[in-house]
Amino acid sequence: MKIVVQRVLQADVSVDRKICGKINKGYLILIGIGHEDTEQDCIRLADKLVNLRIFSDENDKINLSLKDVNGEILIVSQFTLYADCHKGNRPNFVQAAKPDKAEILYNYFVNYCKTKVQVVQTGIFGADMKVSLINDGPFTVILD
Question: Looking at residue 88, what is its pLDDT?
Fold first, then answer.
């Protein structure tokens, strides 16, 4: 499992020009799921991102977690995080999980996050999505 965590002031995702998920201060999460991933991986990474201390405190030190700032999460599936570009110029996605398995784990991840964070929004799995964000910092972290 690969997760790109972007600290944002706001973000939204739309499908067919209709916003399906929107958040204010928090994380835009891009998640890719691989063949070997399990529900335990979902739990481990979700716990890690919820407790990740990448927000500034009153002394401008990066010391606060998503929970500390009452932040929100927007989760967008992105199998292209498993792109292998070592050979040629066309990415290979064989390390990405097949859509049926990936969707099950994606939904598990989303539902688990909902037990930890008050506001969790999502895109639509497998759809052609447009993502808009105001990156805060910018501050981007990769978890896997």
Answer: 86
Q: Which CATH number fits domain 2-143: 3.50.80.10, 3.90.1720.10, 3.90.640.10, 3.30.70.930?
A: 3.50.80.10
- The pLDDT mean for the chain works out to 95
pLDDT tens-place string over residues 90-137: 998 989 999 999 999 999 999 999 999 999 999 999 999 999 999 998
The one catalytic residue among 80, 115, 122, 140: 80
Residue 80 designated active-site:
yes
User: Distances in Å between the alpha carbon of 15 and those of 73, 81, 104?
Assistant: 18, 20, 20
- The domain locations on the chain are 2-143
* pLDDT per residue as tens digits for the range 39-80: 999 999 999 999 999 999 999 999 999 999 999 999 999 999
